[in-house]
Amino acid sequence: MSSDEKNNPQHNYDPFQGFNRSTFPFYDDKNPSIYHRSAAPTPAAVQAFDPSYMSFNDYFNGGSVINYNSFSRALDMSCSSSDVVSAMDDSTGTTNNTKNSVGGDKHIQIHNISEEIPSTPNSSVSCSSKEVEDSSKTKKEKQPKGSEDHGDDRSKKVNKATKKEKQQKEPRFAFLTKSEIDNLEDGYRWRKYGQKAVKKSPYPRSYYRCTSLKCGVKKRIERSYQDPSVVITTYEGKHNHHIPTTLRGHGAGMFSPPIMASSASGFPHEFLSHFLPSSSNNPVGNTNFMHCQTLSPQQPQQHQQQVQVPDYGLLQDLVSSFNRNQLP
DNA sequence: CGTTTTTGACCGGCGC
DNA sequence: GCGCCGGTCAAAAACG
């Protein structure tokens, strides 16, 4: 609270319009080049994250309409890269808050804005949830304030190492949603475990963890202070379980089977598909799907390695073919 | 009464 | 080394 008051939203106006930089959860302060792909000029990339500038269609060669299966494939390709997948409903090209837009035309655009790649490919992704458990365990073992901390040092170091490793492994996936509701229903059950004031923003950031046992997926939700109607949701990790079917008529039925079936690879495009505006029973009727972004974990430069990074042009082609297939 | 949220404290990373 | 900051913990409160 008090730190909230310290943050003055008027302070330091940012030309990135609040969708980037530190207010943008996937912006990497240490690697500003994330927006500087040669194929994607910085201004466009910047504008791409600000709906007030232009729509994604405008940004991306005059528009792309793609189907979700193809979109999943695109994600599949990009699972080991740091490609940005942007998705939006066409009605969100403007600031209109169109109701029931979820059933309308879906415009999805893919662009690569980062050259970051995940850490060692042979790292054990499957144990992520366990690592989370271990991590919390070691933290719990931590002596409470004022206690002696002799054996603590070791656990701290171990914890630090595993934590760092884990953070580098966990794929992150973020998108912007135009919604009045912060915590959008996505079929999974989440438990809030923290809330922090966001620098330069009057809106706090909430931290959620999947309530399913052994599932270490986390998500962060914050509202853009530049456009309070925009919710920034960042997912970290991959669910190792199905959507709870008991959840208010959601769950598997909420999403189309082909998308679910295409989710065999490591990256949570299944997960992404859950958020695509395809559901007519989406409880958030006035939610406009705006932008999606996949992120790979940060990693030290010296460990960069050759990973299949989809070519930007390839993605463009993909989008173009989507466009052809989708348009009547 | 079990589960979830709230919230202040704590920790580690990082920049200066 | 210090301070800032993002992320997490965990006890207490709130909720259903």
How do the strands and helices of this protein lay out in sequence?
Layout (H helix, E strand, L loop, with lengths): L1 H5 L35 H7 L7 H4 L8 H10 L6 E6 L16 E6 L16 H14 L8 H20 L2 E7 L11 E8 L6 E7 L7 E6 L6 E7 L20 H5 L7 H5 L14 E8 L16 H15 L2
Antiparallel strand pairs: 1-2, 3-7, 3-8, 4-5, 5-6, 6-7
Helix pairs in contact: 5-6
The structure holds a DNA duplex (16 and 16 nucleotides).
Descriptive notes:
With 328 residues, the protein is of the alpha+beta class. It has a domain at 176-240: WRKY domain (N-terminal domain of TfIIb, Single Sheet), CATH 2.20.25. The protein is 26% helix and 17% strand. The protein is built from nine helices and eight strands. It has helices at residues 2-6, 42-48, 56-59, 68-77, 128-141, 150-169, 257-261, 269-273, 312-326, and strands at 84-89, 106-111, 172-178, 190-197, 204-210, 218-223, 230-236, 288-295. The protein has a six-stranded antiparallel sheet with strand order 4-5-6-7-3-8, with no helix packed on it. Strands 1-2 form a two-stranded antiparallel sheet. A hairpin with a 7-residue loop joins strand 5 (204-210) and strand 6. The longest helix is centred in the middle third of the chain and has 20 residues, at 150-169. It is globular and about 70 Å long. It starts with a helix and ends with a helix. Residues 84-173 are annotated as: Disordered. Keywords: DNA-binding, Nucleus, Transcription, Transcription regulation. GO terms for molecular function: DNA-binding transcription factor activity; sequence-specific DNA binding. Residues 119-129 have a biased composition (Low complexity). Residues 130-172 have a biased composition (Basic and acidic residues).
